[in-house]
């Protein structure tokens, strides 16, 4: 450390800045009453919590549970919700996307007013609202009543076999079959509440952290925060997979012995939301105990501004409603900010769509069980997302604070290249599609019928199309159900006297066993798919801290929270909201057999897998390629902006030096005149 012209110059010690500046916490807390507690209850024994480290633990726990429920449970349970409430993929995609509608409506106001208000209150109340939304999401489970699988409904307790009914070709009708609007509405409102509560978490949370720690330490705190945000979904998939091994009503009806491998099995999805919502309500109390700013934060901020580590405030923006439009216009005029936002949004559109259906893809493409697919997703999320964020935070922290904006923008371009390469994972071959009579191939002994699966040999069986219950005939062909195979008897898990199955022995009629033909628990190609997926996740989430660094360093100091909020709005409007709906429509567009009961259509029972994965692959290359282009444009304009600022700074220094020389000449003249 040296002194020049009476000013302290500590540039040489920049790398030694600790994670938290050493300040007199007790003195600051007493002067401003910035102590930990609630209202007038602020006991001394709780003041050990008054630190940036404890705060990041609190909001990280909030983001962890929020990520576990909203991004973990919901994405894993979509297929379960389809089956339980007979919803289409587009409908469950809408349910998943509705979480972002509240964010679109509220993020601008929360981030703008939260910047000038008490961020802690916004965060604490947000945790409560998110918890209430989780608890409301459980309500349809209580309204729908006990689950009645096909095998125990309508007199079909013997295994959904053919019941000859003369010339009557009508099927047994299930009450309330098909997606009921009120279930969708309840899910929609619950997701709105969860989205509204989390609005402050991802805008005011990072801003509060950045304001209360030194800029050199900010990337590390942000990395911890975002790592917990991403660790939540990982645990959500693993824990959710375990919950799906529990029967939906905890106990099965008497005489029913379904297993998790049975197509009619539905797991206890609702238990996760019940626990998560309760925990979030408790977490809110921990967050609300923090003051609106931590002791020493002002000194940290003043030092950072003085040393030029962060942009100065825009004095024209004062936090009034009339300032909202000028603040927005100023952000839009920044090409660095806009192209960075568009790049993130392009990735979010694809990521949100895939995340909503990734468990379903593993089950359909590779034949994995709901439990195992949940475990796999949870396992790959941890190294791919958390590892990426932590490494990204460490790398960004090594950037020179003076050039962190430019270096972060360049880093984003490089990382996005690997994301494009990893998108080819969708073209990895799956386990093949089993042949199903009437869906992928014609019945072997019948040429006429009402539609694909209803033909002459099963026309008088009054078969239900509500839920697929596959059996494998001895002719090595799978059938939609024992009834549609024309099977009239069942003994010891074997269906006999099947009129639609060509016998392979001297018998006049065929037989069948439960399940698809040749279907195993999965094939090994899923390993290559998982490896590619880890690469994609790692290259996407290693950019999390760099993206925030670009935003926080390219806008005025007092617009940082609003910039994050505005960016989040664009992400949600153009990415998170349409993504699940778009990809749900892609799934529905490749459905070749819908569930149906007396004219009411339910959820899809069979997809054309090869066409589905091809469409997903082309979508992935398109969106990730677009993101790469936008990142490059952001970096390009970043270089131009920095060069312009350096030129302006140089002109100011020259002007200052000229004035100093003139002043020195004036002083010399004055001294000369006084001497004369």
Short summary of the structure?
By secondary structure, this protein is of the alpha+beta class. About 55% of the residues lie in helices and about 5% in strands.
- Please tally the helical runs, counting DSSP H or I stretches of 4 or more residues: 20
Quaternary state of the chains: single chain
**Main beta sheet:** 5 strands, antiparallel
| Global geometry | elongated
The unreliable regions are 1-31, 151-158, 314-318
List the strand order in the largest sheet: 4-3-7-6-5
Number of E strands? 9
Helix content: 55-70%
Head-to-tail CA distance between termini: 43 Å
Can you tell me about this structure?
It contains 20 helices and nine strands. It has helices at residues 25-32, 52-85, 89-97, 99-116, 119-137, 139-144, 181-198, 204-212, 218-243, 270-288, 297-306, 324-332, 335-366, 370-397, 404-422, 525-541, 544-554, 560-576, 578-589, 609-675, and strands at residues 2-4, 7-9, 471-473, 478-479, 487-491, 494-498, 510-514, 591-597, 600-607. The strands form three sheets. A five-stranded antiparallel β-sheet has the order 4-3-7-6-5, with no helix packed on it. α2 packs antiparallel against α3 (89-97). It is elongated, with a radius of gyration of 31 Å. The model is unreliable at 1-31, 151-158 and 314-318 (pLDDT under 50).
Question: Could you name the key traits of this structure?
Answer:
676 residues, alpha+beta, five-stranded antiparallel β-sheet, two-stranded antiparallel sheet, elongated, disordered N terminus
């Amino acid at each position: 450390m040296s002194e020049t012209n009476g000013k302290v110059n500590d540039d040489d010690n920049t790398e030694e800045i600790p994670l938290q500046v050493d300040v007199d916490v007790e003195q600051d807390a007493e002067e401003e009453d910035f102590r930990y507690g609630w209202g007038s209850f602020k006991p001394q024994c709780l003041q050990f919590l008054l630190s940036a480290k404890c705060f990041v633990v609190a909001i990280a726990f909030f983001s962890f549970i929020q990520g576990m429920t909203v991004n973990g449970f919901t994405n894993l349970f979509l297929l379960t919700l389809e089956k339980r409430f007979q919803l289409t993929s587009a409908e469950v995609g809408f349910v998943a996307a509705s979480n972002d509608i509240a964010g679109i409506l509220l993020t601008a106001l929360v981030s703008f007013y939260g910047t000038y208000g008490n961020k802690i209150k916004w965060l604490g109340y947000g945790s409560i609202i998110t918890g209430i939304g989780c608890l409301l999401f459980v309500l349809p489970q209580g309204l729908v009543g006990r689950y009645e699988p096909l095998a125990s409904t309508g007199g079909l307790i013997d295994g959904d076999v053919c019941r000859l009914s003369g010339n009557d070709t009508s099927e047994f009708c299930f009450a309330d079959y098909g997606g009921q609007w009120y279930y969708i509405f309840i899910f929609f409102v619950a997701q709105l509440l969860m989205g509204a509560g989390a609005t402050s978490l991802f805008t005011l949370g990072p801003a509060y952290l950045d304001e209360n720690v030194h800029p050199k330490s900010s990337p590390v705190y942000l990395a911890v925060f975002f790592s917990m945000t991403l660790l939540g979904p990982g645990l959500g998939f693993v824990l959710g997979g375990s919950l799906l091994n529990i029967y939906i009503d905890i106990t099965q009806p008497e005489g029913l012995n379904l297993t998790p491998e049975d197509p009619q099995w539905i797991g206890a999805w609702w238990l996760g939301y019940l626990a998560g919502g309760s925990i979030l309500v408790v977490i809110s109390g921990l967050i609300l105990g923090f003051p609106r700013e931590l002791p020493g934060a002002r000194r940290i901020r003043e030092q950072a501004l003085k040393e030029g580590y962060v942009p100065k405030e825009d004095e024209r923006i004062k936090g009034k409603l009339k300032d909202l439009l000028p603040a927005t216009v100023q952000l839009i005029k920044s090409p660095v900010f806009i192209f960075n936002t568009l790049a993130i949004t392009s990735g979010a559109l694809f990521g949100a769509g895939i995340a909503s259906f990734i468990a379903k893809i593993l089950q359909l493409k590779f034949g994995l069980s709901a439990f195992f697919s949940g475990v796999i997703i949870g396992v790959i999320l941890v190294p791919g997302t958390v590892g990426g964020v932590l490494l990204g935070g460490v790398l960004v922290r090594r950037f020179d604070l003076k050039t962190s904006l430019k270096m972060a923008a360049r880093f984003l371009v490089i990382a996005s290249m690997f994301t494009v390469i990893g998108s080819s994972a969708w073209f990895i071959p799956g386990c093949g599609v089993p042949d199903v009579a009437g869906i992928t191939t014609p019945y072997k002994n019948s040429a006429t019928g009402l539609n694909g699966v209803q033909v002459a040999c099963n026309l008088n069986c009054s078969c239900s199309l509500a839920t697929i219950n596959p059996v494998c005939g001895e002719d090595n062909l799978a059938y939609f159900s024992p009834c549609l195979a024309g099977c009239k008897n069942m003994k010891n898990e074997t269906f006999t006297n099947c009129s639609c199955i060509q016998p392979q022995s001297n018998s006049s009629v065929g037989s069948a066993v439960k399940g698809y033909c040749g279907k195993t628990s999965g094939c090994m190609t899923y390993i290559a798919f998982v490896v590619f997926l880890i690469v994609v996740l790692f290259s996407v989430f290693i950019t999390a801290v760099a993206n925030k660094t670009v935003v926080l360093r390219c806008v005025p100091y007092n617009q940082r929270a609003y910039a994050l909020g505005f960016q989040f709005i664009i992400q949600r409007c153009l990415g998170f909201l349409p993504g699940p709906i778009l990809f749900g429509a892609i799934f529905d567009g490749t459905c070749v057999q819908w569930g149906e009961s007396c004219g009411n259509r339910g959820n899809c029972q069979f997809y054309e897998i090869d066409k589905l994965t091809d469409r997903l692959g082309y979508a992935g290359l398109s969106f990730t390629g677009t993101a790469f282009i936008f990142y490059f444009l952001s970096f390009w304009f970043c270089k131009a902006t920095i060069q312009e600022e350096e030129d302006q700074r140089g002109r100011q220094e020259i002007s200052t030096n000229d004035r100093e020389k003139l002043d020195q000449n004036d002083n010399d003249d004055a001294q000369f005149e006084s001497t004369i």
